[in-house]
Amino acid sequence: MNLFKCLVALLILTQPFLLNAQSTIGGTVSDSNNQPISGATVIVNAKPNIYNITNSEGEFNLENIPTGQYTLSISHLGFKPIKEQIEVNGTDRSFSYILDTDLLNLHTVVITGNFTPKDQLESSTSVSTLDSEQIQKVYPRGTANLLENIPGTFTDASAGEVFTKVYTRGISAAAEDDMGWYYVSLQEDGLPVSLVQHSYYSPDIFNRVDLTTNKVEALRGGSASITAMNAPGGVYNFISRNSSEDLNGEVQLQTGVQGEGNMLYRVDAVLGGALGNNWFFNSGGHYRHDDGARNTDFTFSKGGQFKFDLTKENSRGYFKLYGKYLNDYTNRYNGVAATNWDNPEAAFGQNFNNSALLMPSFDATIPDGRNLSEGGTNSFNPSNGVHAKDLAVGFDLFQNLGNNWSIKNNMKFSSKSANWQTAISNVFVSISDPTAYYLVSNGNPFPVGQIVFKNANSGAELARIDNSGIFSGNSSEYLTGGTLPNDAIMGTSTWYKDNTADEFMQQLTLNKSWDKHDLNFGFATGFSDTSVFTQGSFAFSTYENNPQMLQVTLENPGEPVMALSDEYGVSNYGGLFFTNSRAKISQVAGFANDHWEVSDKIQLDLGVRFESITHKGSNDRYAPFTQNGGLDQDETTAYDNNILAPTGEVDEFDYTYNYVSYSFGLNYKLTEDASVFGRLSKGNKAPELNYYFNNYANVPINQAGEVQKINQVEVGLKSILKDFSFTTTVFWSELKDIGISNFEYDGDTGSIFYTPILFNTSRTLGLEWETIYKPFQNIAFRFNGIIQDPKATKWNLYDAAGTADTADDSTVDYSGNTLPFNPKLMFNFAIEYSKNKVSSFLKWRYTGKREANVANAFQLDAYSVFDAGLGYQINRNLSANLLMTNIFNSDGLANFMGANSFGANANGATSEFIENNPDASFIVIPILPRATLLQLNYTF
């Protein structure tokens, strides 16, 4: 009896331990070739969830799992996920899993365009992804160059790494000049890179792609209206690497040859792992030295960035501290001269592949119009291009609150600056054109007589001319044997801009799941304190490949020598452009979205967003500084006689834009691997700061800008078959209330101005597709693209008749024409091969014919670009890759800037103009030339 009581007592005492017995689950994850998959996420749906990331051997280990029935989930980008019911009974268990390839990542969870992560197949959005492997197959020429691989996305990366253009579905009208990201949001880890845009200040200035980027998610239109801040055209989200239990990293060395032997040197590195006690870190970045794709006498790009994140995980979620420091110099290319409107050919000895026509490096000191009385100056060297600096620190948290509630908050502070020192414009100006002399000091005085051009570096005289006959219609005459190339100078300006912005942004999302609903609601805020200063001076240089700066004087017999430029060739100090403005931007948005699982097959997505954006700031009025002899009070120096400076008057603006956007989506699941979806969206686009900075020079800002309206409808199909996966989407998009203003130059008065704004409407109907076919284990075919019909349904342009005088102005109606700069056909086709240690690819990118202006008077021909790559896995840790882009050196034309004359624009090249000027030259911007890159990667 005593023995029986002892056994009962023992059972009672051990019962809690039996009930709480815990187990360890481990195993391996590999692909269909039996190769380990590193970085796969393994989750057991305990409360809270228990998860692990597979190491380099594909191994995982989940500890302290209580006895019970669970769902074990395994997922990794590029593979179909696995969900399996498992039983934990107090003993340790080991599993082995093989993941099948998910050719288009349709079973991958995406976060962009969704308030909570969604399986892409179940999402009613048009999202494409580029994983790290695909990113590494693209020659590193900047953000826009990478996004050329996204279906339905038009990119213009012809200027280089920055000053690029990206848009989708014909939502493009305000993104065709110098704000090429106008309608879309460029994001890093779910928050915008920058809150504001204006001329020469776009988010691509502050974004660089390197090994710290794990993947890119690209959302085209649709739910961008309710998930992004003032960006209804789409979202391009660059997502950083995930945390890992094991210490791991990668070092990449790259060297390349571009164009006519221009070199690129670059090093990337990334390191991550666990610090113990559920702390994890990632850090990395890059540095590069790039001579550029075209020929210049200076380094085109140099600098880099460093990024980090530090994550603490707990039983309910995580806390993450992250940051970035960018310190980078890069430049941008202007256009190239061409003739023959029917079949453009490079003119004046220039070359579509290699000509840059940028001013050479020199160190000038130009008076700062804002601080003339204090002797303020700005250093200027066109080799600096744009010096971008960005210091950003952020905090991201996610926590399960219990009872199916969770909270996520992502916030970031950044301090940005972008200092531009480069050339704007590079057009032909004949030595017999009065413009060449008027711009010395806006005609004060107008130099007439013997003009002497000297090489600014050596001081050697290149040419001496007599321009006395230009007012009577006669050509300038050479007085000695020396001549200038092409009998012209280059119409160019020193383009100095100082931009700064201190910004704070955040997005708070609360999630409540119950029954068949997944409700998300919250708010987003953004605050930016920004300023811009712009100053432009005329500069004398030769009009030829590799221009030389010209020191210019007026040397009439019996009269004192008059300096028309300084020793570097700079003239009309600060007399061409002046902007001194500042603004404070407040953006506040509230949103709600319900994802309703109506049935096992039907999911409904309903979202609404209220947004309020306030622009408060001011522009300085300005006038030429007047003083006998100019700033230096020297009658023999004409180049400082017309400096634009503040008058003390200020034009203020304070406008708030309130609007409501909504988006409704429906997803119908045909099978486990196929679904159809539809979406209706109404979005809005508030003006950017260029509306105030550009359009109200020296006049009151008497009205708010117009909010553009974007209406979109799309219907799509997503499917995964055994060897073939595809998505296809039919869309209709309409953009209304597009404010259009042209940049003009009045040759009679020397004034530069913007024409009054007219409001227009465009419509685009199209079909996007993305497919991959893998008929054999080692060969895959990728094919994506777009067919579209872009129309300018209502389109009027203001014709200033080439003068600032409004008496001869008129309006021209181009309604019904094809919308410019939108190809009707655009696609990427690639063949990929991999076996054992060898991999390779060949890609064909086709960009169809485009109208070069809304007058439809000139077309940019279709062009093709071929890229190729070859890779070899030397050993487990070391690999080598060879990349080539534009193998056949295609001279495709990406953009058109109008006639080859100072102040011209694309819309000025009407049918009448072309008919009357069949032999005229014009400015086009070619795509970048051939480049070859060798990569050496070491991973551990």
From TrEMBL:
Keywords attached to this entry: Cell outer membrane, Ion transport, Iron, Iron transport, Membrane, Receptor, Signal, TonB box, Transmembrane, Transmembrane beta strand, Transport
Domain TonB-dependent receptor-like beta-barrel stretches: 328-886
Leader sequence segment: 1-21
UniProt keyword Membrane, yes or no: yes
Principal location listed in the UniProt entry: membrane
Family: Belongs to the TonB-dependent receptor family.
Gene3D superfamilies the record matches: Carboxypeptidase-like, regulatory domain, TonB-dependent receptor, beta-barrel domain, TonB-dependent receptor, plug domain
PROSITE patterns membership: TONB_DEPENDENT_REC_3 (PS52016)
Designated name of the protein: TonB-dependent receptor
Keyword Signal: yes
Membrane topology, from the record: Multi-pass membrane protein
Highest rank taxon of the organism: Bacteria
Cellular location(s): Cell outer membrane
InterPro entries referenced in this protein's UniProt entry, alphabetically: Beta-barrel_TonB (IPR000531), Beta-barrel_TonB_sf (IPR036942), CarboxyPept-like_regulatory (IPR008969), Plug_dom (IPR012910), Plug_dom_sf (IPR037066), TonB-dep_rcpt-like (IPR039426)
SUPFAM superfamilies listed in its UniProt record: Carboxypeptidase regulatory domain-like (SSF49464), Porins (SSF56935)
Domain spans labelled TonB-dependent receptor plug: 120-235
